[in-house]
Amino acid sequence: MDFAELKKILVKENVNPIEYDILEKGYVTGFDGYIIESIESGYGLYYMERGQKNLIAEFSGEKEVCLAFLKELAKTGDPQLAKYI
Question: Which neighbouring-strand residues pair with 58?
């Protein structure tokens, strides 16, 4: 899975775009959400709440961070995403 495929899944499953950011702004426009950022060692997966961004994990590859992103969203409010994991 790559970022383009991940974004297609999120649109198809009607995940609200204010809940996530993938390699764009580095923040979410809603109250809380998940962020994927490019970092020196690969990609960082973050959870942001009330403006505070916390690192969940670092990944060396695109596939790994995409799957972890889906797992996080599936367990915290978008259970329909579990079928893609």
Answer: 44
User: 24-49, pLDDT tens digit by residue?
Assistant: 887 787 778 999 999 999 999 999 99
Question: The dihedral of CA 31, 33, 37, 41: what is its sign?
Answer: positive
DSSP result, 27-74:
S-SSSEEEEEEEETTEEEEEEEETTEEEEEEEESSHHHHHHHHHHHHH
Q: 11 Cβ partners below 8 Å, 6+ apart?
A: none
Distance, CA of 72 to CA of 74 (rounded, Å): 5
- Look up the pTM and report it: 0.91
> What distances in angstroms separate CA 50 from CA 10, 29, 35, 73, 83, one per listed residue?
23, 10, 14, 18, 29
73 — pLDDT class (breaks 50, 70, 90) = very high
